[in-house]
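Example 9 (inverse folding). The structure is encoded as follows.
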């Protein structure tokens, strides 16, 4: 590990950035250095500009993907290297288009969930929909996070490393109790194939893609789409859960 990489890692750690953010920033800076085959300490505004043009025009990355690279480079040069630039000018951020999410109807959600073969996979995707959880939050649930007395679910260290509670609907509780009675999970509500670990995001997303092919719904369906559908149903009071 180079001294600069070590310093950047430590700077992110003392600021308590999420592990995924740390990994992503290091990857982005590494790709930037490999592109020029030089240390970022030897690169400046012209190289940064050329790299952003490369990401946009040659790799044709979406603005959201370019924004990740921008955030990583801004952290590197502003925090770790402490270079006093006008960062909005030297490392400009592309404007991200505001798009409306694709919304599944309650009927489409039920059709989709009905095609999920495994009770565990159906239960976790139902949690994403009925409780509006991100998949990264749903996979980390523990049996003790389900509070049937207060009818809430505790989300431990969700996005932004914040704890919060979300409402637990009676129908979702029925689904979760059915799953618990069948599997009797202990450490994690949705254990993975590896002993002592919860199911991975990738495994759930793979099941989601497989089920999407089976249910013949033309709209794109991901765990995040189910979360959006939950917000829609809450707003219009049409959620069947």
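The amino acid assigned to each position is listed next.
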């Amino acid at each position: 590990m180079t001294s600069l990489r070590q310093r950047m890692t430590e700077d992110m750690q003392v600021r308590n950035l999420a592990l995924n953010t740390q990994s992503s920033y290091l990857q982005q800076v590494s790709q930037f250095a490999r592109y020029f085959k030089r240390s970022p300490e030897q690169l400046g505004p012209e190289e940064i500009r050329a790299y952003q043009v490369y990401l946009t025009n040659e790799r044709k990355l979406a603005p959201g993907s370019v924004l990740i690279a921008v955030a990583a480079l801004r952290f590197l040069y502003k925090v770790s290297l402490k270079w006093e630039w006008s960062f909005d000018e030297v490392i400009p951020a592309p404007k991200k288009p505001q798009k409306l999410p694709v919304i599944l109807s309650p009927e489409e959600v039920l059709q989709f969930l009905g095609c999920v073969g495994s009770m565990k996979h159906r239960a976790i995707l139902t949690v994403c929909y009925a409780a509006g959880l991100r998949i990264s939050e749903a996979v980390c649930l523990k049996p003790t996070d389900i509070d049937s007395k207060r009818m809430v679910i505790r989300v431990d260290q969700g996005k932004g490393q914040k704890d919060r509670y979300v409402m637990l609907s009676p129908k979702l509780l029925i689904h979760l109790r059915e799953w618990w009675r069948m599997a009797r999970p202990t450490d994690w509500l949705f254990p993975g194939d590896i002993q002592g670990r919860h199911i991975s995001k990738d495994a759930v997303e793979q099941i989601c893609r497989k089920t999407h092919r089976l249910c013949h719904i033309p709209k794109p369906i991901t765990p995040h789409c189910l979360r959006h559908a939950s917000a829609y149903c809450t707003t219009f009071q049409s959620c069947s859960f």
